[in-house]
Amino acid sequence: MDSLIASTPTYGWELLAQLAAWGQQGMVSTDPSTCAGELADLLARHLPMPDGRIEIIEHGAILGSATWGRHSGDRASARLSIRADGDEIGCLYLGGDSAAALDPNIAIALTAQLALLLATRRREAEIAVIGQLRALIASTLESVGVLDVRTLLSAVLSEALPILNVESAGIYSGDDDGQALALTATSASADGYPQLIAHDSEDLPARAAARGEPQIGSALVATSRRRGAAGTARATERPALAIPLLFHQQSAGVLVAALHASAPEPDSSQVRLIESFAEQLALLLRNARLFSQQQQRARELFVLYENSKEISTGAQIESTLDRATENIALALDAEHCAVRLIEPQRPDVLRTVAIYAENGRTHASASDIAIVNAPSFLAQISRGEPLQIEDVAAPA
């Protein structure tokens, strides 16, 4: 039985060999416009099509493109999608009557080789972006101790937005009672992020915190109105990604990144970049908190020193208590502090012996406080439980 073996056009293998050499020699430019131009020149020399166009795509947007001949998108006879990691990272349009006759084997091999090249360009671009993010975190670490934690985190989030190609970002941390996630900081352009999110809710940050892995969904973000426009900001949903901030497998919070309205969801490249940023952010957050704790401890030790020095001077007890009360308020960064004693002869009254108020007005808080249920009160005090015994808010 006779058989006919059809030969594959030689132009295709020459082109594939050239593309493979580019990849092996690292000749792919990370700049999308330059990369597209170089590929278009190569395709024009080796393909028999009179015109065509190649596009480099990221996050659904065309980052760079180049044409040869008199190509117009309306005249394309063939469209080859270039995909990697499940994402469309490029597209090749071929024009002219000969485009429809492109050998199928060549078309498959060509798109595979272009996908490999563009995926290499994508990884190298990611490495460059990760370098930018690390440099940003490194420079911000130098400001730990100079700025407060909220200001520090807000600044780094705002600078990271254009690098990550996201609209806004926020950081959530566990609140004092462990029942909810509290908003720690947001980027400058962020409005409308909920201040508290219950741990057991289905909100995106709560899901990421509970499951310990990135979650893709939506976040409610207030769209800022134009300056001078009437009305208030309008809350809208944005596609978003929530990533746990982990430091040595311990949770430090959750990063929420809201994408632009035009993005349906983050692609694999953007997820990797945001995850890399979250790793660096966890380190920054940990260092900032440790420094804050060290500052607090230093203030407490200073208070102990000052109070012990005051006692050793032999000053009157009233003067010593006044100075100690002021030192305690300064150490705790409190606007008000009072020392009240329970006298054995009158266990139903808290007697004020010293008081400090930042604004200089002691008003009603300077008076003694009557205890309604003395036995219950004393029992709670003995267990070291915090009690609210008065409201020291200054009168309007």
Structural summary, described in words:
The strands form 3 sheets. The chain has a 6-stranded antiparallel β-sheet, with helices on both faces. It has a 4-stranded antiparallel β-sheet with strand order 2-1-4-3, covered by helices on one side. A 3-stranded antiparallel β-sheet has the order 11-12-13. A hairpin with a 2-residue loop joins strand 11 and strand 12. It is of the alpha+beta class. It has 8 helices and 13 strands.
Order of helices and strands: HHEEEEHHEEEHEEEHHEEEH
Multimerization status: single chain
What is the beta-strand fraction?
25-35%
Biggest β-sheet strands, sense, barrel? 6 strands, antiparallel
Low-confidence regions: 1-6, 225-230
How many helices? 8
Give the termini separation: 104 Å
Short précis:
With 396 residues, the chain is α+β, with helices and mostly antiparallel strands. The protein has helices spanning 10-25, 32-46, 104-141, 149-164, 204-211, 268-312, 317-331, 374-382; strands at 52-58, 61-68, 76-84, 87-95, 168-174, 180-186, 196-198, 215-223, 234-247, 250-258, 336-343, 346-357, 369-370. It has a 6-stranded antiparallel sheet, with helices on both faces. It has a 4-stranded antiparallel sheet with strand order 2-1-4-3, with helices on one face. It has a 3-stranded antiparallel sheet with strand order 11-12-13.
Note the topology.
Layout: H1 10-25, H2 32-46, E1 52-58, E2 61-68, E3 76-84, E4 87-95, H3 104-141, H4 149-164, E5 168-174, E6 180-186, E7 196-198, H5 204-211, E8 215-223, E9 234-247, E10 250-258, H6 268-312, H7 317-331, E11 336-343, E12 346-357, E13 369-370, H8 374-382
Antiparallel strand pairs: 1-2, 1-4, 3-4, 5-6, 5-10, 6-7, 8-9, 9-10, 11-12, 12-13
Helix pairs in contact: 1-3, 3-4, 3-6, 6-7
